[in-house]
Amino acid sequence: MAYVIGVGVTKFEKPLTREWDYPDMGRESGTQALADAGIRYDDVEAVVASYCYGEPTCGQRAAYELGLTGVPIFNTNNNCSSGSSALMLAKQLVASGTYNCVMALGFEKMERGLSEKYTEKISPVKRHMDHMVDIGAKPGLIKPQFNTMTSDVIKLFAYAAREYMEKNKNCQLNDFVNVAYKNRKQGEQNPSACFQKAPSKQKNKRQGVVPPNIFGYGSSNRRRRGLCYCLQPSIHSEACAVCQSS
After folding, report:
1. Which 8-state DSSP code applies to residue 13?
2. How far is it, in rounded angstroms, from Cα 102 to Cα 10?
């Protein structure tokens, strides 16, 4: 068995609004998690670090803020599921008996928008984006201020919502509005949330990131707008959990 015995989290910040870097994030949330668990970093036998925007071994640099004890540090990059991947791997390392105490340390220092750094290589999402166009998505930027990656990812979610509504005739725009409102409403109860006040359902319904013409069905623009309010903007944040066998 494996148990989460301590957790820590930084405040979720918009990019370029706070002077800090990922080692600062690791120190802040890691220190919180250790204090919550009532243990020292010396008790941690391995670290699983997760991030997307950073060079190799950023996990080592973040964990060094907590101590230099020589424990193995494993880095994982799995896009939006990076954090849950790190937690799963930490749990597996403990449950298997390989280690008694493992820290999952996730951090992200993003830009304003999404991007790809290694443009000389084939994009790992190119196959998905090409297929999206092949089945009817309109190529090109949805807004001139967005780069290609940001635009394509938004379209990927937006067209998925469109497809879902076409397959499930009982699904209405209000269903998406309610999900977005519920998620943003939780932020009012969370002092670490980036957005501390939820917009009204009416505002969610009126405004949208994606132009109405991305949804090529129905006659009412009102019904087609606002479907991307479920998308999370780029963010700076860090969270940490400590897993132990008992």
Report:
1. B
2. 20
Give residue-wise pLDDT tens across range 133-166.
898 888 888 888 888 888 888 888 888 888 888 8
SS3 content of the chain, % helix, strand, coil (to 5): 40, 15, 45
Please check whether residue 29 is in contact with residue 240, taking contact to mean a CB–CB distance below 8 angstroms.
yes
Cα distance between residue 71 and residue 65, in whole Å: 13
42-45 contacts, C-beta under 8 A, 24 or more apart: 42/67, 42/69, 43/101, 44/69, 44/71, 44/101, 44/102, 44/103, 44/242, 45/71, 45/99, 45/100, 45/101, 45/102
In our burial notation (b when 16+ CB lie closer than 10 A, e otherwise), range 199-209 reads bebeebbeebb
CA angle 19, 20, 21 (to 5 degrees): 140
Which of 173, 230, 242 lies closest to 202 in space, CA to CA? Answer: 173
Query: Taking the model in full, what pTM does it have?
Result: 0.82
Alpha helices in 38-81 (DSSP H): 58-63
Taking each continuous run of H as one helix and of E as one strand, the counts in the chain are 8, 5
Which secondary structure element, helix H or strand E, spans residue 231, and what is its range?
none
Which amino acid belongs to residue 220? Answer: S
C-beta separation of 46 from 142 below 8 A: no
What sections of the chain are H helices per DSSP?
22-37, 58-63, 82-95, 126-134, 148-167, 173-187, 201-206, 221-224
Of residues 57 and 14, more confidence is placed in 57
Task: Name, in order, each residue with C-beta under 8 angstroms of 84's C-beta and a sequence gap of 6 or more.
Answer: none
Beta bridge mates, 47: 73, 103
